[in-house]
């Protein structure tokens, strides 16, 4: 058995289905599962040792790239992470043997965005170190997540939200929405500490819900906040058990005793 014979049975149907206007993602997943077993048997998931021929490597690389895109479309982040890890060998170790893949930088950019959305900043910077510096400056798929990371470091969350309209590929929206969810929860936690209440319209703007009252109300209920329709306000609930009582009387008494002892020493 060779990857070419496997390709004629499963790879070509996978490509045809996945690239169709309305792909059946369940069918694509079935094809991918069978193809990964075949690639594993042919030592092409993580190739090592004797170098396979170029045609086999190209087919295997394309299967893994389709798998990575499929993972985003079915919102399976662990699967996407595995496909990216398997593709690293093709993008680095076999880069001199294979022609460049047009899917490489879009997928590398997607992976950078995944790391940002998971707040894995150290890994994000490690991944950047493995990218050609010229691509960091010029490649739109790499520049986009780099720009987002800079905005996050500045605390410019409005720029992160605005970047949603400037994605270089539709798949990027999946991870940006996850990132916005993380940002919303951070803003919500800060708001709970800073305010006792907020007008509903202000909360809608502050949390980047883009004039969607339904989404605001869902978020409010998830956080356990209280909405008073008559006032059109959100009231932040606090738990008494989270409050820290400062024993002021005891501290004052200890301070006075300490002062008296110092006087006696002097």
UniProtKB/TrEMBL annotation:
Keywords: Proteasome. InterPro entries: 26S_Psome_Rpn12 (IPR006746), CSN8_PSD8_EIF3K (IPR033464), PCI_dom (IPR000717). Signal peptide: none annotated. It holds the Pfam family CSN8_PSD8_EIF3K. GO terms for biological process: proteasome-mediated ubiquitin-dependent protein catabolic process. The keyword Transferase does not apply. Gene3D superfamilies: 1.25.40.990. Residues 78-253 form the PCI domain. One of its GO terms (cellular component) is cytosol. Belongs to the proteasome subunit S14 family. This is 13145_t:CDS:1. It comes from Ambispora leptoticha.
């Amino acid at each position: 058995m060779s990857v070419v014979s496997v390709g004629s049975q499963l790879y070509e149907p996978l490509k045809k289905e996945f690239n169709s206007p309305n792909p059946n993602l369940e069918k694509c997943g079935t094809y991918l599962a069978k193809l990964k077993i075949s690639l594993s048997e042919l030592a092409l998931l993580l190739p090592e040792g004797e170098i396979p021929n170029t045609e086999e490597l190209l087919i295997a690389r394309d299967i893994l790239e389709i798998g990575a895109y499929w993972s985003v479309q079915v919102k399976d982040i662990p699967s996407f992470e595995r496909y990216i890890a398997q593709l690293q060998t093709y993008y680095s170790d076999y880069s001199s043997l294979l022609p460049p893949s047009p899917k490489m930088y879009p997928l590398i950019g997607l992976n950078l965005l995944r790391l940002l959305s998971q707040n894995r900043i150290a890994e994000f910077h490690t991944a950047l170190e493995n990218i050609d510096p010229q691509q960091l400056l010029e490649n739109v798929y790499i520049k986009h997540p780099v720009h987002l990371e800079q905005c996050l470091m500045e605390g410019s969350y409005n720029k992160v939200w605005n970047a949603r309209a400037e994605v270089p590929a539709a798949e990027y929206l999946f991870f940006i929405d996850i990132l916005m969810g993380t940002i919303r929860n951070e803003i919500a936690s800060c708001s709970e500490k800073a305010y006792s209440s907020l007008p509903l319209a202000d909360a809608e703007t502050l949390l980047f819900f883009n004039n969607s009252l339904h989404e605001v109300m869902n978020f409010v209920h998830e956080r356990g906040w209280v909405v008073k329709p008559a006032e059109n306000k959100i009231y932040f609930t606090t738990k008494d058990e989270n409050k820290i009582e400062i024993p002021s009387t005891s501290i004052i008494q200890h301070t006075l005793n300490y002062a008296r002892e110092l006087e006696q020493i002097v």
